[in-house]
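fold-stage: in
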Amino acid sequence: MNAPSPLLTRPGAVRATGPDEGVAAHYGHPVAEQRALERGIGVVDLSHLGVVTVSGPDRLSWLNTLSSQVLTELAPGASTELLLLDPNGRIEHAAAVLDDGERAWLITEGAAAQPLAAFLDSMRFMLRVDVTHEASIAVLGTSAAGPDLSGLVPAGHAAALTWTDPWPHTPAGSTRYGPEDADHPGSQWHARLTLVAQEAVEGVVSAAESAGARLAGAWAWEAMRVAAWRPRLAREVDERTIPHELDWLRTAVHLNKGCYRGQETIARVFNLGRPPRRLVLLHLDGSEHTTPEPGEEVHSGDRTVGRVTSVVRHHELGPVALALVKRNLASDAPLTVAGIAAAQEVIVSPEGAGTGRPEAAPGPTLRRRNL
């Protein structure tokens, strides 16, 4: 884990907990901070996230063989993301990917950075690659339409690098288990992550504020993410999660690339099967003064049908949550979470089929003999 952010000393700063520990949940005005982020003037301290770099001439071809994404033709400055799966296709690591022409930069959860670096280092063998956990690099978040932080890095520091989230754009070679890109709520919100040296964070944020930006907390960032149905490794992924359940194939998985660990499950579920669970957005009863915690069970009557993964208070949607539920749960089933009534909004289709799925082969037919 990274050291606590120096921005926690700002007036009104309230510490975040859980996977966001180390930064501020908000600075005293969570709703106003969320609106500032949505308007494109918000800057969020995300220095609790972790950064790993891979250098060397074999870096992209090597990462291509390990991950779910095609990386061999990744241009310098272009943004994508990858998943590393176990042999059964379950998600182990997820990372935003940016290459600067010399190093591939992987942005992941703070608690996952060192394990990610250790895994990659164990897979180097004789290839010309070097893996480094960049503990001195911090992450700042804005909307893609927000302030350009790369030009605000103080003199003497390395130039900032910026990753733009591809979510929810579905490129050729990928598939979606949810709505078309244009109809997806994520099309209204595009995140951007800027990498800066830890010691430059305060200077960059102050310069952005002088230019009209507003510092926002992790609660605002999470509210935008949940409203965009954007899965997160530290929240939506457990020991059983496969990408199909989260509609994560649309931006993190290429179906037409070479072999990688877990590919058989990816292909089998896409071609023949259906994911056992599906991600939904839960609209929670706003008359309650409390909200459920991540991990709470979702009930339909007396049956447990899933669990909550993320919970936020959105400035327009009110209290909402992401949850993983059984795929065959009726989309209009009345639900409760910790005694709070909830209505689901479908994210991953209950039909369990991605776009471009091959047509099922016709069944055997009886052979007739004319006597």
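fold-stage: in (second)
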Amino acid sequence: MPENAAPAAHGAPEAHGAPESRGAYEPTELTVPTRGRPRASYDRELVHSILDEAYVCHLGFVRDGRPVVLPTLYGRVGERLYVHGSTGSRPPRMAGGGAGADTGLPVCLTVTHVDGLVLARSAFHHSVNYRSVVVHGTARQVTDREEKLAALDALVDHVVPGRSADSRPANAKELAATAVLRLDLAEVSAKVRTGGVNEEPEDLGLPHWAGVIPMTTRYGAAQPDRELDPSIALPGYLAAL
């Protein structure tokens, strides 16, 4: 999968918090798991790598007293995550104004990679190898125009690095219809499972196959749009995928 890239067409939003890829996040009551604590990590570099390798996050919040979870694209710039949506949707209106505002939407954002199927002799010990990140915080709507433009570039470049510079930027009408939410990386934890089967000693002799089936994500061959001018060659940054 591609690594995340900085926005290209506009100045990047100011990085927030501790320098990138240094140190660890401070554990909090929300980020310390009740089970599987040895698998939890607060390493900043690990968290960033898991976030940068995924494409879709799940954004959870409470609406009208009911929990809601929405899958959405996102982008990371330093110690901030950005997600976008329609200005008419509920999350942006609930999130309110920009930096310094006393409004905001409490959220929980998660990202997960499945790296392998762990098949045990017993049904109880089946599992998966995975890498995940959970972010707790308050999402706020981005109102500064330059930060919004840079955040949208970051969202595009998160999917394919370099793409924002090779596509038409949003026009005034599109910007007016699009809301961007900012979530600072502060209360953050990663959780990882690797390795093989954990089995009960008395089950080792059972006549069932056991082991790990690795899983990876691969790119297929590029499929040009049928209206694409034949003279437009596949860009190098796409051929590299």
